[in-house]
Design goal:
About 75% of the residues lie in helices and about 0% in strands. The protein has 13 helices and two strands. The protein has a two-stranded antiparallel sheet with strand order 1-2. Strand 1 and strand 2 form a beta hairpin. The longest helix has 29 residues.
Length: about 290
């Protein structure tokens, strides 16, 4: 297998690993409070990647980028704070919304990231990406209604959209540190956001779950958050950002498929309409920049 094909495997593996997080988190939320769940997921990513970094140094491999400096501090703080808010909102949303809907709603992060980049950093948005933003927003609106006929909003879906907005800001903070070693960034994200969420969970009176659930959530965080980002970065080095995002964009659809299979859900016509619109919007977003706008 040549290096290019191997990079495609890494990109799809990164997407698949992240996709597992939604349905498995839904199962664990039956025994783990939402804020505590967010904390343990990020701590799992931080701990796992710290161990991986130790192994990497042990076998003589250096970092994959520059070291973080004092100039990165404001963006690192913003990244950690937003990574506290986003998963907490996601877990609250996931505790009430269906996991298939949540998986697809995760694509709203594309909209949030693009609009924030436009408004705060002056990045241009092509007509193709504007079309993608419109389609994904329309799909997200359909997924946010509990009953399309009565136009009652799902509170859980609104929390998921709020999580996507937080991650949109966070993506732009992380973008400012993109030349740094990604493993170091994940470790900072994991421990900073994990400990912050843990402090909030204790402050609001959430109880520690049984040890077995903590271990399962730690493992899920390492696999679905830590390793997913790690493989994504490796793929990006050979494929470039645009191609990697094309493969990684399958993550919400893998998550939705897993959720439908695990929970035996029977979504209504609105879900399937939203799915079709989301696929089209994701296609335009992930291929943006490859064709003339």
């Amino acid at each position: 297998m040549n290096k290019l094909n191997l990079s495609v495997v890494w990109a799809i593996l990164a997407a698949a690993l992240y996709a597992v997080s939604t349905p498995v988190s839904k199962l664990l939320l039956e025994s783990v409070p939402p804020t505590m769940m967010a904390a343990v997921l990020y701590l799992g990513a931080g701990m796992g990647m710290l161990l991986l970094g130790g192994v990497r140094r042990g076998i003589g491999h250096g970092g994959m980028g520059r070291k973080l400096t004092r100039r990165d501090l404001p963006y690192a703080v913003g990244m950690v704070v937003l990574d506290i808010a986003a998963p907490v909102c996601l877990m609250i949303g996931l505790s009430t919304a269906t996991p298939a809907n949540v998986s697809l709603l995760n694509n709203f992060e594309i909209v949030a990231t693009s609009l924030i980049a436009l408004l705060l950093f002056g990045e241009a948005i092509s007509r193709r990406l504007w079309l993608a933003i419109g389609l994904i927003t329309l799909s997200s609106m359909l997924l946010s209604f509990e009953d399309v006929s009565s136009f009652d909003f799902s509170v859980g879906s609104l929390f998921v959209l709020l999580a996507c907005i937080c991650w949109g800001f966070e993506n732009n903070c992380t973008r400012m540190m993109s030349e740094a070693d990604p493993l170091e960034i994940v470790v900072i994200k994991g421990f900073g956001s994990g400990l912050g969420s843990l402090a909030i969970a204790v402050a609001i009176g959430e109880q520690l779950p049984e040890l077995r659930y903590i271990l399962m959530a730690l493992l899920l965080g390492f696999v679905a958050y830590g390793l997913s980002i790690f493989f994504y970065v490796y793929a990006q080095r050979k494929l470039g950002a645009a191609k990697t995002s094309t493969y990684y964009a399958v993550a919400p659809f893998i998550g939705a498929a897993l959720s439908l299979a695990i929970f035996r859900e029977r979504p209504g016509p609105a879900f399937w309409a939203a799915l079709a619109i989301m696929i089209l919007g994701t296609y335009f977003a992930s291929t943006e920049g490859k064709k003339a706008a």
